[in-house]
Write a structure and sequence with these properties.
This protein is an all-alpha fold and 111 residues long. 58% of the residues lie in helices and 0% in strands. The chain has one domain. The longest helix is centred in the middle third of the chain and has 16 residues.
Length: 111
């Protein structure tokens, strides 16, 4: 007879909340997505604009709650738009597949 000896600390709703992308107000976006000099240096090594924006968003999420998350584009598109328009102004940002390239994996590892 097998028994489950695993301790359950968090409910499934709490686990989902912990690993979900945070929801930011505009002030939160400004605070968490603003880059310091060291972060700008790392960001400048990323050549692809989409991945730069993704780097800033994931870094901001990590500053907010330091757990690794793997969001889908639809969950973070408003934050990506904010970063593309405010933090890294330039060309527009089209939808893209997250983590679909080797460089995308590098962006995640830089965070």
């Amino acid at each position: 007879m097998a028994t489950n000896k695993r301790i359950k600390i968090l409910s499934s709703a709490e686990i989902d909340n912990l690993y979900a992308a945070p929801v930011f107000s505009e002030n939160d976006q400004r605070f968490f997505f603003t880059l310091n000099d060291a972060e700008k240096t790392v960001c400048s090594r990323v050549r692809n604009r989409q991945q730069k924006c993704m780097f800033v968003v994931l870094l901001g999420y990590f500053k907010s709650k330091p757990v690794p998350i793997n969001p889908k584009y639809g969950q973070i598109k408003e934050d990506l738009k904010f970063v593309a328009n405010t933090i890294l102004p330039g060309q527009g940002l089209r939808p893209f597949k997250i983590g679909s390239t080797r460089q995308g994996s590098t962006v995640l590892s830089d965070i």
